[in-house]
Design a protein that fits this description.
Length: about 60
């Protein structure tokens, strides 16, 4: 059985004055307020979402 990689995503930027699709991406990642943190599986779909809002989040690997 393989262990799935997990990443910790923390919101560091404000979604105000950002396009609606970027706000929706933050909500999809489980973030919607400053300094909120979410632990997610490292999948291509999540990586694509992170690429869209990379300027508003900090990503760390969880061991």
């Amino acid at each position: 059985m393989t262990a799935t990689k997990r990443i910790k995503v923390t919101q560091i930027g404000s979604p105000s004055r950002r396009p609606q699709d970027q706000r929706a991406t933050l909500v999809g990642l489980g973030l919607n307020k400053m300094r909120r943190t979410s632990v997610l599986e490292d999948t291509p779909a999540v990586r694509g979402m992170l690429r869209k809002v990379h300027h508003m989040v900090k990503v760390e690997e969880v061991s």
